[in-house]
Amino acid sequence: MAGCRARAPEHGIAFLLELDTNRLSAGVLPAEAVPAAVEVLRKRVDNFGVANSLIQPVKDNRILIQLPSLAEAEKARAKSQIQKTAFLEFRLVHPESDALLKQGTIEPGYEVKVERRKREGTVVEVRRLVKKEPERGLTGRYVDKSWVALDPITGEPKISLKFSSEGARLFGEITREHVGHCLAIILDGELCSAPVIREPILGGNCEISGSFDLAEAHTLAAALQNPLPAPVRILEERTF
Description:
globular, single chain, alpha+beta
């Protein structure tokens, strides 16, 4: 019929996930992990507006997700959002990082992380010696809100964070005590950035910049609103 346009076909997609309870966030008990993950995944799936979706625990730390009538273009985004752990950590960089790395020395309690920076269309890798543990236990569990903003100078996307009152207190103490040092922002084990602490930051806000595009920034911001208590992996994926 004239004027009619064919719609892209929609099919359901199902994922069987396994939660790695050996890598739980601090303060989360193994018995609480799967129910907590189910609730997080439910909030993420709700963002897709899929009616009659199913999210339920099954045996052995596994979770089944069924998303009926999902457009083809949305399937990859759904998969990325479901898999994203969004485990955020704030760790200090060793004050003698550059010198120690040149000597090939890695002090106890530290590890090497690689920061990838965009410069004039190319990606430059910078190695840093970073603490293995988050400073004062400051992780994404203390984040109340996250959203995407554009850098007013470069136009590149960045993620803005608002800490809870306890998170703001911890972040304020860390930045007050370590002025002049670099604070590494680690997301899912990857070093996003390591800005120099130039002054105490007491307002409870923080920004994450990195080598991600706008779509990735929105995915990360949404995931940081609802971080999983432990990483998940997809055991099985099928359409119906």
